[in-house]
Amino acid sequence: MINSTLIYIEKDGKYLMLHRIKKENDINKDKWIGIGGKFIDKESPYECAVREVKEETNLDINSLSYRGIVTFVSDRYETEYMHLFHTKDFSGEVNYNCNEGVLEWIDKDEVLQLPIWEGDKIFLDLLSKDTSFFSLKLEYQADKLINYKLDI
Hints:
By secondary structure, the chain is mainly β.
């Protein structure tokens, strides 16, 4: 079981998105995702989120909103618990030289038009509606979403 974080950093109606094009063996290859990554030993979800944002963007997080937990189940990959966060409260300047991919501010209305995971559309909708904390289970066969269950 993998634990990871995904953080949507928002400014001026845009999300800071990462286009994952730099790693060869990448579950997210060629997709656009928020910022985040896997926990290291003894980290809390909040600590992981703050560290990953700093490593990938050079931004400092001042506060985060813990929005939900997403369980990814796949016939190809290990099951993953992804802890979803959102923030507008950060400081610093983005270092666009990220070794994970290309960072870009994308209008929130345009994110759904990008190559993203099908299940991401569900939780992005929940973020846009400012839904309370939720649990979302996504089941994939290959890259195809075959089932989901949402608990609010």
